[in-house]
Design a protein that fits this description.
Blueprint (H helix, E strand, L loop, with lengths): L1 H14 L5 H4 L1 H8 L3 H24 L6 H22 L3 H16 L2 H11 L5 H30 L1 H22 L18 H4 L2 H35 L7 H25 L2 H20 L6 H16 L2 H11 L5 H30 L5 H15 L1 H8 L6
Helix pairs in contact: 1-7, 1-8, 1-9, 4-6, 4-16, 5-6, 5-7, 5-9, 7-8, 8-9, 8-12, 8-15, 11-12, 11-13, 11-14, 11-15, 11-16, 11-17, 11-18, 12-13, 12-14, 12-15, 13-14, 13-17, 13-18, 16-17
């Protein structure tokens, strides 16, 4: 079973190589295409909008057909979207189209991969394996920043997206060879594909779903604008950007992965809802601190960004695992479909709202605008603990 989990984690990392390629190279795209902050936010977030629109269907399908089949289709679409971006993107509208297509590909791999894992594992170690898989999203984020930033700096953004396409094709081959076909573990009841009513009646699940939506708003707002913020902070401090913004983003994703796994383990030992709530509140407070740190020493900003990434990710795997554990056994695919739909609606809105605040509060050359943009993220993050508290089951 451990081999299967490692294969799925590796495949997740490979398919995610292009997910944050635009964010890793955002300052270059803004300069080359003359983008406003709001337009850059649209391109950063549109992939997650594509994800949110496609994930209900693709994930709910895994209650009816083998999740492996859905995953393989999603991986091929991911490769195609990155290849098309590398070959034909030339401005706002083409970038929006290809990034949206990439979001649909991600919808076919991320949560269907988790469902493939759940259908093929069992026993007391299953929650930990689930947390390994969900935490690998951060490893994929790190790989995306590392490869995209490195290839982009050396050869340009088109080869960076071509590399992402090649990585997704490699992942397709790995999963096709390593995973044997297997039908869903529990046959689904005879209900329409997108009938979310049973999930909406599951109050404990809803708390994790709405908490996850607030979490992803904050998380993807940070990841989409982190490189640009670090570049601004370095310019403002007058110091050399060492380590580089993309190097910091790569390290931040690794820190986030460790935090996510650690948070998932703590959630098994302690009260899951309390842990997730405390992590969200701490992350919201750190968002304010990071927002006002520009103008200070560059290395101090780097340290604060790394700490913020740890706090913002501490509850990530714990929230998703909580939703899966509270779900009805025959409706896990539908539950995770709604979980992902609302969660990645937040992932779309977070980067867009961040850019909108930057434009309305001044622009990306204003310290006050950056501070307000970070504060806006923290304000959304505190909604998660409210949802978890409201949905806590009544004591017997």
């Amino acid at each position: 079973m451990t081999r299967l989990v490692l294969v799925l984690c590796l495949a997740e990392v490979l398919t995610m190589t292009g997910v944050f390629a635009f964010a890793a190279l955002l300052p270059d795209f803004v300069a080359a295409w003359g983008l406003s902050n709001t337009e850059a936010g649209w391109i950063s977030g549109i992939g997650f909008a594509g994800y949110a629109l496609a994930v209900p269907v693709l994930t709910a399908l895994t209650d009816r057909i083998d999740a492996r089949r859905v995953w393989l289709g999603g991986a091929l679409l991911t490769a195609a979207s990155a290849a098309l971006f590398a070959a034909f993107a030339d401005g706002l509208w083409s970038a929006l189209a290809f990034r949206a297509l990439g979001g649909v590909g991600l919808a076919g791999t991320y949560m269907p991969g988790l469902k493939a894992l759940v259908d093929r594992t069992e026993g007391p170690s299953q929650p930990r394996w689930m947390s390994w898989y969900t935490a690998s999203f951060s490893r994929g984020t790190s790989t995306s920043f590392l490869i995209s930033g490195g290839v982009g700096a050396a050869w340009g953004w088109r080869p960076a997206f071509a590399a992402a396409a090649a990585a997704a094709l490699a992942a397709t081959a790995v999963v096709a060879l390593a995973l044997k076909p297997q039908p869903p573990a529990v046959p689904v009841a005879a209900t329409p594909l997108l009938d979310f009513r049973p999930v909406l009646r599951n109050r404990p699940v809803l708390g994790y779903i709405f908490g996850y939506a607030a979490h992803t708003w904050e998380l993807f707002g940070l990841r989409s604008w982190m490189v640009a913020f670090l570049a601004f902070a370095a310019t403002l401090s007058g110091e050399a950007a060492i380590p580089s913004p993309t190097a910091v983003a790569t390290l931040a994703a690794l820190v986030a992965m460790a935090a996510s796994i650690g948070g998932a383990d703590l959630a098994v030992r302690f009260d899951r809802r309390t842990l997730c709530s405390l992590a969200a509140m701490a992350s919201a407070a750190m968002a304010v601190v990071v927002g006002i740190s520009a103008g200070g020493p560059y290395l101090l900003v780097v340290v604060l960004i790394l700490a913020h990434n740890a706090l913002v990710q501490l509850d990530s795997a714990a929230l998703t695992t909580g939703a899966m554990l509270e779900a009805e056994c025959g409706r896990r695919g539908t539950t995770i479909a709604l979980h992902s739909l609302l969660g990645f609606a937040g992932a779309f809105a977070g980067p867009l709202a961040f850019g909108w605040v930057l434009d309305r509060a001044g622009d990306s050359a204003s310290r006050g605008a950056w501070a307000l943009a970070f504060v806006s993220r923290g304000a959304v993050a505190v909604l998660g603990p409210l949802a978890l508290r409201a949905s806590r089951p009544a004591p017997p």
